[in-house]
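Subject: Interface between my chains keeps coming out wrong

I've been trying for a while to get a sensible model of this assembly. When I model each chain on its own everything looks fine, but I need the whole thing in one frame so I can look at the contacts. Pasting all components below, labels as-is. Any help appreciated, I'm running out of ideas.
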Amino acid sequence: MASLTIRNLQKRYEEVEVMRDINLDIADGEFVVFVGPSGCGKSTLLRMIAGLEDISAGELRIGDQRMNEVPASKRGIAMVFQSYALYPHMTLYDNMAFGLKLAGKSKAEIDAAVMRAAKILHIDHLLDRKPKQLSGGQRQRVAIGRAITREPHVFLFDEPLSNLDAALRVKMRLEFAKLHDDLKTTMIYVTHDQVEAMTLADKIVVLSAGRIEQVGSPHTLYHHPANRFVAGFIGSPKMNFLAGTVQGFDGDFVQVQLDNGGIQSVAVERGALKAGERVTLGIRPEHLHVVHGSQIIPATVTAQESLGDHAYVYADCPAAPDGLILRVPEEEQYRPGTALQLGADPQRCHLFDASGQALARVKVLQAA
Amino acid sequence: MTTANMRQIGVGILGWGVALVMFLPILIIGVTAFKTEQDAYALSLIFTPTLDSFREVFERSHYSTFVYNSMAVSIISTLLSLVIAVPAAYSMAFFPNRKTQKLLLWMLSTKMMPAVGVLIPIYLLAKNTGLLDSVPGLIIVYTLMNLPIAVWMAFTYFNEVPKEILEAARIDGANAWQEIWHLLLPTTLPGLSSTALLLIILSWNEAFWSLNLSSVNAAPLTVFIASYSNPEGLFWAKLSAASFLAVAPIMAVGWVAQKQLVRGMTFGAVK
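Reply #2:
Try treating it as a single job with all components included. I did that and got this:
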């Protein structure tokens, strides 16, 4: 087991800089998830940790050893690839034993390690089969088994569930959580699926355009996003954003005048914020409600989607270029064209300054 | 009879027709080889078969020496080509840089140049290094001649292998040679064997360099055939018998391996 430290890491392809200023500390035994949109560099970062990509600048340490120049096989890591990358001409046993054979382990040692991994993953009855005779889920298990036999200090998973169907994905997700509980090894997991990130991670690293946007627990990222990108990326359906101007301050509250005339109070620390400054108001769909009163956001219903136990109402609002989404109880029905008056608890609202940075929330109501 | 049936029969007849036209020269050689010199000038299929031409051919020359030279030259040059081409294609397929595509095209372009253009320099090089009319000399020339094809084909097959498989092996502790030996060769074996087969056939049939660079000691079967065409006139029956003996081994190999050859040619195209 080992901790992992990344300092000022940089990745360049010739003159093009694709990753910069990556600083990250991963504690021993932690389950860390790298999440971000396609092309954000999450897989590149994982591959740099694995030793499959060169590190252009900065330092990577696993435990207390500098790893920049250490070859992949000597870093004490094991990796599970998105495509599984099983050796197609070898049996499952040989797939899992390959690394140990290369390391010159004795037959008895190899046998014990393979059987142990196969038992953990319930594939011990398939060991003489070839990969093409297996289902997607079974192949995934073999890929994990191959990683386990290496007894690594750090497991690296590169979008391991993205080739599986939805039902199997949920099942395997739970198995990953159990695997981490059983092995208690440091795990780094790359995904673009925020549900996987939220459910599995001790710590989530949100990346965008080759930079780390925020590092924190799923709870922190959801309730205290550091900027508009993280606020919009974490949570489904995504957070509503409304453009407006600071109208004034009232005790702990910042009064925001929205571009369509609506007004909303937000419980954030005012910091350097001044009246008249442009801001973006953020409200999650589950915190936006139909209200009656003086502080309201006017909107017009465009559609309603029912999901059984609750429904999402889509509404147009001139202050929200992407439209608004609010979560309502199943029994509430809104016809397209209905005019709505919306509002949210000030303590559940988020506020972002003109550069997109979040203002610290004063007192946070966490329960939905 | 339906139109579909008619079309099928039409395609069948066309296919057989084309095959027959292509096979005709070999058929004529095969038939003429069993004729007497007098009968050989007639295209008739009615004649008394005789082995006289074969007997004369065996009496006049050491067939086995030519076969030995052909085998040595084509097999060793093929192995050498592959030994050089596999690592080259490995680096081009898995560690490409901006120049890789250009390099591949350049290698192939050397095959487009007429060989006679470099005959004099190569002849002089062979002469000055003492490799003229020697098996090693021919092996070197054939290896160089076939290398672009070998690299190109191996590159194509390696490109079909997912990069992650080799990366997984690298993490498992494999070095470049172990990646090639344990993963790349077994997974691309059908492709590489068809490459080898093609190289053997090309070397076996090569006539330009063998006629120009060998005469007695290193002469392969192509020279053996040519020796039956001389200024005093053509002896069709003997020439046919010699040609028959020259192409028979490689045809037998091709016949046995045709399934493998077809599989290799379509490897990766059909999943």
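Reply #3:
Confirming on my end. Residues 237-352 of chain A form a domain with the OB fold (Dihydrolipoamide Acetyltransferase, E2P) fold (CATH 2.40.50.140).
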